[in-house]
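[scheduler] slot 2 assigned
[scheduler] job type: sequence-to-structure, two independent chains
[scheduler] chain ordering preserved from manifest
[runner] begin chain α
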Amino acid sequence: MKVFKAYDIRGHYPEQVNEDLAFKLGIAYSEYTGAKKVVVGYDMRPSSPCLFSSLVKGLTSQGVDVINIGLCSTPICYFANGTLGVDGSIMITASHNGRGWNGFKMCKAAADPLSYKRGLKEIEAMINEGKLPGPAEKPGQITELSIGQKYADNVKKYVKFSNRLKIVVDYGNSVGVKEIEGILDLFEVIPLFEELDGTFPNHEANPLKTETLRDLQKAVTDQNAVFGAAFDGDADRCGFVDEKGEIIGMDLITALIAEDLINQTGPQTILYDLRSSKAVPEAIEKAGGKAYMTPVGHAVIKENMRKRDAAFAGELSGHYYFRENFYSESQAIVLILLCNIIEHSGKTLSELIEPLKKYKNTGEINCKVKNIPELITQLKEHYTDAELTELDGASFEYNDWWCNIRPSNTEPLLRVFVEANTEQILKEKTTELLSLIKPFEF
């Protein structure tokens, strides 16, 4: 399996991602970016310290100075990159992937991510072709820096609530612990699975899989909390349940935050990914903002945010991006903003979300298919009277329903999303669409 993905490097340890690859990555990253000072952090997976050592050997062999920020969340690594004025950063993590996986998320200066279209392809070629330079005359130095409290102090500037609201946080045994440890004094937190364990003994740290939220749902209702939050493996994504234990679509959290941001600061440009409910752009525009659709994926969203100077962006998978945080994710900020909204509105989270639940949708359906280009061609021939958008895969839109079909950027899957005005239309069109896809499944 190919380990160089659309937005990062990821694979099984040690068969695909190992110390040899990490060492070569350090050299190739240095050669491609020309970086002289780089931040490196890592998650709680058992293989992360070993990969860290080898990566740093590769970097310092090229004369690159390394700032070791240690065990951290991916948002903290982005923050360190931006605030320390370094030339880049590398986070060792496999994100939401389960036990046995690891990988690398690489950025240039100002937390600007590398992707396969912007750097990873060249780095892969250097390694595969053995075109790596020899060591520099003078090796780089390694310094250690604890930056978690500085991150916490920075996100606290968003606080506008005065009461310590009770929230349940499912850390999933991941570095979500590090993401919010500096702001725990703001809330009354009921923790779930806070022990750092990269073998994920309780459940996969992936809030997109609703079965992973069952413990959170029960704890929220048992504890009478105002909401529950669940981090993914490196805490750059978060899923939410309301005070009733009901799962909230992550796109609707985008709409809620966007509305509040615009109300607080005036008209802003907001990006939303193309899988989001139609309720999202409608809410943004009703509040007075400018809503722009974007393809899926953190690297392309961050690039588009920079181009449009967007204040905020949200993704159906639970990524939430802030211009003031170097156009990168911060789940700590999201928790704070939700508490601001709840306290100032005097409403529960379910009451705030209810007006946004205007449409019915399937959520993201994953299909294992072959010959995706031919499938999309046939769908175009079937839905000839639809409004077609090919921003990412293919979207077919009608007055009362729409769908998006796109190949995954991280897994060998076809992602399918359907939304309709009514439950009946949703059922009919989803059945129809899946029947058209079925001949291509394997």
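[runner] end chain α
[runner] begin chain β
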Amino acid sequence: MEQTSDIVAARKEKVRELREVGVDPYPNDFCVTHSIGDIAVRVNDPGFIPESLPAGISLAGRVMAVNRFGKSCFIRFKDRSGQLQAYIRHDKVGEDAYALFKKMDIGDFIGITGEMFQTKTGEWTLLADKISLLSKSLRPLPEKFHGLKDPEKRYRQRYLDLIMNPEVRDIFIKRSRLIQVIRDFLLKRDFLEVETPMMQTIPGGAEARPFKTHHNALDMDLYLRIAPELYLKRLVTGGFERVFEINRNFRNEGISTQHNPEFTMLEFYQAYADYEDFMALTEEMFQAAALAVTGSVDVVYQENTISFQSPWRKMTMHEALETIGGIDPAAIHHREGLLEAAASAGMIFENQGELNAMGPGKILTKLFDALVEPRLIQPTFITGYPVEVSPLSRRSRIDPNLTDRFELFIAGREIANGFSELNDPEDQRDRFCQQLEKRAAGDDESHMMDEDYIRALEYGMPPAAGEGIGIDRLAMLLTDAASIRDVILFPHMKPTEKG
């Protein structure tokens, strides 16, 4: 720490000296003509002719390495598109410019104008005619050979992580590509991209604890949305038959390798479709995403090869609990048997009020989460969810205690949730009332009553299907990231004394 302070002090002194001689250490007048990547593509072309490049190429970037030889110097600098070597000679750039260059450090931004040539080793290098300091770095970058490895520091100082670790930069480029592919996929299928409120008077669309805030001018409490679902379905009611939103959601929950309080979801809805249509659409979407991001439908994730090739496995929740979870079929159909199975599995319910509010459907899904979900490595659709845990889903015509709903699991975690939408306003009101009873019994993640949403359904919503996909978790799969923090640029962190 003391060494860093000394370096910062020395660099601040250089800034002072530069200003004394009339040099602005932070100018904004350098004109860039090419990116490093542009030049790299051209010089690496087998048919490249040096004379084909325009005279006076101007490149800019951050200095990453310096190798001085008396009155000449090789440096490596990088921009968004790559890294390049430059050669700076005292007799070429002039005494004043070379004196300025000597005050530059690793981490500084530099602008160079010159011509490309090949060194004796065959490396294409920019021979500088002119050099300009564009931004003085006051803090030293991490030492080259050790880099920045501490996850805590990487997440807190993502800017430094991106500078030092090219593989991290690549993850976020792939994430951006993933979102673009999904957007294009839906737009080509006549979906309309929309925006819905982030601050809502009634948080709905998921079972989760919301963040609460207050609007001073209106003197009213508002909640950061936990999902955009109920607003998107209002739009389906209003005649937008295919809509989607790539949105930020906020849930006041714990932080883990799979959870961040602020995260990105895709939600999309289509009139005159059902949950089976959306399972097929999801397979197609994920295959397109995998191909675009990784070049293959077979993706290696944490030493497992995940195949997105169709067809994907489909199982009901009951089948999965029996065949994968090892639950006695006789225990599945009553609460007492499920509680005994939970006890045998070592599950502990610390919140007695929440346990009292659980019916057999909720206990069933808790058992599934513990015994089955971690074992679903290859893409698997689980169907047959109980009505109790699916308050917005259409009832199954085969079994009214179940719903036409699926969840998609890959690599032992939920990636997507979709269902045929409940558009019966009376049934929906009854489901909300049941949720209110659960809230009163201690389950503070249960849904609230939303009278305006009921009113919208009373005007008539067409039969439809809807789905939500966790963009962060999908990005984890396609970039082989072990933690959700690795695919979120600025994940939430517990504050330190230094801030």
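[runner] end chain β
[qc] chain β: The chain has a mean pLDDT of 92.
[scheduler] slot 2 released
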